[in-house]
């Protein structure tokens, strides 16, 4: 299944730029909702992923690729298993590529001190993050304000899609927003919500999948043997060679992210 809705907003205090990528443009003030929702035809929706909030200047840096991180340069797929790069969507600022390493990750600590479930939640989430660190340098940070990717133990809001009357329950949601960093680079940050009720293999799989989106795989694989398969499967696969091949291709693409924001006045 493909994308169901795709909405983009780019707003600034001075002006508003609206970009239509496929279907609709929706405008909101302040916190905006730039949504890219991907659903499936199945009853259980693994995830949808969305992006939001772009208080950036009207002059986005031109699209340019960054040097490939050494971890991906070194990656060789001896199995030649291909990729699903064609399923990955560029955004209006190009591909969602990180260029400052390590990528800083914050995992919400357990709040209920005696809760075994909460402890297991953090353990599984951290493990999935660890798995990706082979392919891109990651660092766990202690403060959410320092994070590029924040993982929160929270049930995602119900989502109502225009073509369906029933709101859909989701176990995970990944969103991003953009901002201009102190050193004037167009930057992005991700928030991943993962349901507290998810446990064990399901949570591990969901985190692995959502984190792949946050690293830049903004799309889904059509094959159930990939971590970024569009639907939840019982025996979730580890990160596959195809997942990494796709990630590597994403990082070869041009982006406005990580480049200096020009002043077009
Ligand atoms: Zn997904």
Textual characterization of the structure:
By secondary structure, the protein is of the alpha/beta class. Helix content is 18%, strand content 20%. The strands form 4 sheets. It has a 6-stranded mixed beta sheet, covered by helices on one side. The protein has a two-stranded antiparallel sheet with strand order 1-5. Strands 2-3 form a two-stranded antiparallel sheet. Bound molecules: zinc ion. Zinc ion binds next to strand 6 and helix 3. The site of zinc ion has 6 residues, from strand 6 and helix 3.
Percentage of residues in DSSP E strands: 15-25%
Q: Give the strand order of the largest sheet, numbering strands 1, 2, ... along the chain.
A: 6-11-12-10-8-9
**What characteristic shape results from the CA principal axes?**
globular
Helix content bin: 10-25%
Bound molecules: zinc ion
Count of DSSP H/I helices: 4
Terminal-residue CA separation:
43 Å
What does the average pLDDT come to? 80
Assembly level: single chain
- How many domain units? 2
Query: What order do the SSEs take from the amino end to the carboxyl end, as H and E?
Result: EEEEEEEHEHEEEEHH
Number-wise, the strands total 12
Radius of gyration: 18 Å
CATH topology of the largest domain: Collagenase (Catalytic Domain)
């Amino acid at each position: 299944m493909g994308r169901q809705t795709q909405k983009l907003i780019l707003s600034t205090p001075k002006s508003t730029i609206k970009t239509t990528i496929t279907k609709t443009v929706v405008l909101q003030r302040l916190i905006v909702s730039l949504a890219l929702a991907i659903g499936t035809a199945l009853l259980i929706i693994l995830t949808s992923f969305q992006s939001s909030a772009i208080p950036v200047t009207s002059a986005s840096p031109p699209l340019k690729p960054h040097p490939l991180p050494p971890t991906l340069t070194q990656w060789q797929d001896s199995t030649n298993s291909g990729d699903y790069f064609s399923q990955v969507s560029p955004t209006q600022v190009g591909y969602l590529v990180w260029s400052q390493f390590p990528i800083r990750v914050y995992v919400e600590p357990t709040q209920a001190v005696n809760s075994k479930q909460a402890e297991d939640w953090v353990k599984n989430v951290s493990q999935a993050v660890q798995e990706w660190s082979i392919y891109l340098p990651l660092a766990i940070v202690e403060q959410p304000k320092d994070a590029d990717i924040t993982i929160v133990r929270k049930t995602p809001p119900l989502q109502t899609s225009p073509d369906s009357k029933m709101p859909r329950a989701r176990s995970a949601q990944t969103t991003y927003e953009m901002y201009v960093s102190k050193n004037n680079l167009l930057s992005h940050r991700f928030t991943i919500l993962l349901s507290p009720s998810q446990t064990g293999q399901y949570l591990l799989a969901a985190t692995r999948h959502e984190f792949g989106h946050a690293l830049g795989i903004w799309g889904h694989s059509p094959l159930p043997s990939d971590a970024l398969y569009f639907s939840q499967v019982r025996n979730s696969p580890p990160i596959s060679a195809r997942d990494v091949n796709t990630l590597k291709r994403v990082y070869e693409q041009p982006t406005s992210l990580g480049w200096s924001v020009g002043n077009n006045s």
